[in-house]
């Protein structure tokens, strides 16, 4: 672990303890990584999306630092939680778009090597989010692997580290989760 990672861990502990100034110091340190996660998530969204990666980072950041703070283990743990917050922002945004369209036509979600195809429309993102919630009720570990890999952009090895598991176990869960979600979404 570099001293930079150690300072992030210390700032995360300060954030958990309620020191608001920690968030102000932490954002510039993590911004580049957060922006990369947001850019990866936005690359799977439809073209002409009204959110930009920068707006996604800022919206997720506001959600992350307002209210009581969980205890983050380290930088990677925080970034995985940030990726989930970004997922929530995108899903809420998609729900708003569909609400504006008064329900619009729901289209089936197609899965490829990752999960959803690039250019995911709002209805597909909402369907994926609902299926992921059902997967979490069925198998929390598989759902967490999907969140870390798909929404967090983590590699199998990185996800294994966050989950304190072996890469082989994470890879099995990833494969099983994709199959489970494909079946679930095909029936939707």
Can you tag this structure with a few keywords?
188 residues, mainly alpha, 8 helices
Tally of alpha and pi helices: 8
General form: globular
Structural class: mainly alpha
Helix content: over 70%
Question: Quick one: biggest sheet?
Answer: none
Query: What is the average of the pLDDT values?
Result: 81
Quaternary structure annotation: single chain
Radius of gyration based on Cα positions: 17 Å
Estimate what percentage of residues fall within beta strands: under 5%
**H/E element string?**
HHHHHHHH
Q: What is the total tally of β strands?
A: 0
- Ends distance: 44 Å
User: What low-confidence regions span 5 or more consecutive residues with pLDDT below 50?
Assistant: 103-119
